[in-house]
Amino acid sequence: MSRLVPAKLHVTWGEGAAPAVPLTPRCYTLTHSDQTGDLFLTIAPEVNRAQISGWYTRLMRDEVVAEWVEGEAGPELRVHCHVSGGLALGGAGMRDAILRRELGLVLEAFRWGDRELHAAHPGLDQAPIWVHFDSDNPRYQKVERWGAPVDYLI
Fold it and tell me: Are 92 and 84 in contact (CB under 8 A)?
C-alpha cells in the first residue's frame, strides 16, 4: 500500500540533471518538513549539500541521500541513512526504527519523483536497492537489500 501523496513531493532539478538522462552521476537528496509533511527531493549529479546544511537538518540528521552507481551486474541504487554518529538527535535504536518505518515512503518518493527516468530506462525498475544504515554503533551499521524500484510504484 502506497503512502506517498504526490502533491506533497516537491522535486527540484539540479544543474546537469534532466528528467530522463544522465543515469550516472545521479543523486537524490530528500528532506522533509515535520510541520507540513511535505517532502523535498533534489535530483542532481551530486548530493545537494545546501539542502542538508541548515541547522535544523544538521541537528535532526533525518535526510536520506541516494545515488545510482554502475555495479558489477549493472545499475544499482545505493541509499544512505544516518542512524548515529556525530551530532544527531535521538538514540541509534530509536532512529533506526524510525528510518525503517519511513523507508518505504522514501523509496516511493525516489521512484515517483524520477518516474521519467524509469520510463526512459525500464530496466532500472529491476535494479537492486542497497540501503546503508550508517552508524557508529556496530549493532546498527548495516547494508541491506530493499528490493527494486518496481516494488515502490504508487
Answer: yes
CA gap 136, 90 in Å, rounded = 14
CB 103 within 8 Å of CB 81 = yes
For 150, list phi and psi in degrees, rounded to 5: -60, -25
The dihedral sign for the CA sequence 134, 140, 145, 148: negative
Q: What is the reported pLDDT for 2?
A: 83
Looking at residue 84, its pLDDT comes to 75
Sheet hosting strand 9-13, strand order edge to edge: 9-13, 39-44, 26-32, 64-71, 74-82, 129-134, 142-145
R_g of the chain, CA atoms, integer Å: 15
The grid coordinates listed for 67 are 545515488
pLDDT along the chain (154 residues), means of 10: 93 94 93 89 92 60 89 97 67 88 98 98 98 94 98 97
d(CA 45, CA 69): 11
Contact 18, 7 (CB under 8 A): no
CB atoms under 10 Å from CB of 74, counted, come to 11
Find all residues with CB under 8 Å of 50, minimum gap 6, and list them.
Answer: none
